[in-house]
Write a structure and sequence with these properties.
By secondary structure, this protein is of the alpha/beta class. Helix 3 runs parallel beside helix 7 and helix 11 crosses helix 16. The strands form two sheets. Strands 1-9-8-6-5-4-3-2 form an eight-stranded parallel beta sheet. It has a three-stranded antiparallel beta sheet with strand order 7-11-10, with no helix packed on it. It is built from 16 helices and eleven strands.
């Protein structure tokens, strides 16, 4: 009953895709989601090429089902390539930057192409652009049979990416965790569906069977879920981060530029309160990583510092009260969605 066009396109059983969350969506979570009938997606952001290759190989050892890799195509190479140690110190002071922060700063100019090479060489079925325009990669993807999806936050972005040849669009609403835009999911999804001809997936504020049914009613062919998969046994996040998600309300999450320079939804904590009245001091993405330093990476999601660290999650966290297996999450969501769909047709 839940089989849609995106299922046929990606060769999956259910129209459920796990968001490619950096440092969270690693091999165990990805393989579990794919084995359960969805599409698991590795979050490549911040990984070295060797680390990504290792994750891809681990997924293949755990499942023979399709999976994807989420990469970032931001147009900030010039900004990063001009960075010098003196410039970095002028932004961040004398505090040491963690190895993970350095990985972020080096990611865009040095690692992206290597990650795409791995996706091609390892025959990864799906590549998703979590940020930016994958136009330059699409001809290569076509040649190797790779499906390309792209995350957007406005109708214009969706139309632009359809024109460059993406196979499907992920319309992510303001409700979402992590980097997010200004338009709510319920408003964004139907407008994008009406504006493009490729399949559209809904993201942002979706975490149960009711959310999937609502997305289908809006014209989407499926959903992408992040926060619900954060609170799973297989997710690579810190246990305190998972507890923060499961012990919160929908209003415990705020939008801030204080961690990365881009608007990101994260847990309200001492850091976000300190920055509440000085958001205009945040540097452009990704230079704010330097100013925030270890507050961002490893922060709360990786390092467990929930008082000051980054803990990205969406407003749907308010209804998540248990950490369970990703397999169980998908089973429960599918059962609930199919029950609702059956009742609606009576």
């Amino acid at each position: 009953m839940l089989y849609t066009k995106i299922c046929e396109m990606l060769s999956i059983k259910y129209p459920i895709i796990s968001a490619g969350m950096g440092y969270i969506s690693r091999a165990e979570l990805v393989a579990t989601v794919s084995e359960a009938g969805g599409l698991g997606v590795i979050g490549a952001f911040g990984l070295s090429s060797e680390e990504l290759l290792n994750e891809v190989k681990q997924v293949k050892n755990l499942t023979d089902k399709p999976f994807g890799v989420d990469v970032v195509f931001p147009e900030v190479g010039d900004r990063l390539s001009s960075l010098t140690e003196e410039k970095i110190r002028s932004i961040g002071g004398d505090k040491p930057l963690s190895e993970l922060v350095w990985n972020i700063l080096n990611y865009i100019p040095h690692i992206l192409n290597q990650q795409l090479d791995i996706a091609v060489e390892e025959k990864v079925p799906v590549v998703i652009s979590g940020l930016g325009n994958p136009a330059n990669f699409i001809p290569r993807a076509r040649a190797y049979g790779i499906k390309v999806g792209a995350l957007i936050g406005t109708v214009k972005q969706a139309q632009r990416l359809e024109q460059v040849g993406v196979d499907f669009i992920i319309a992510q609403g303001y409700d979402a965790g992590g980097h997010t835009g200004r338009i709510g999911t319920m408003s964004l999804v139907p407008q994008v569906v009406s504006a493009v001809n490729v399949p559209v997936l809904a993201a942002g504020g979706i975490g149960d069977g009711r959310g999937i049914v609502a997305a289908l009613a809006l014209g989407a062919e499926g959903v992408v879920m992040g926060t619900r998969f954060v609170a799973t046994i297989e997710a690579a996040g810190h246990e305190r981060y998972k507890e923060r998600v499961t012990h919160s309300t929908e209003s415990d999450w705020v939008i801030t530029r204080s961690y990365t320079g881009k608007t990101i939804r994260t847990a309200r904590n001492r850091w976000t309160e300190e920055w509440a009245n000085k958001e205009d001091e945040a540097l452009p993405f990704p230079l704010q990583f330097i100013k925030a330093g270890e507050r961002t990476i490893p922060g709360g999601w990786v390092g467990g510092d929930i008082e000051y660290g980054l803990c990205p999650a969406g407003q749907i966290a308010g209804m998540i009260d248990e950490v369970k297996s990703a397999k169980e999450v998908i089973r429960d969501i599918v059962d609930e969605a199919e029950k609702i769909l059956h009742e609606l047709t009576l």
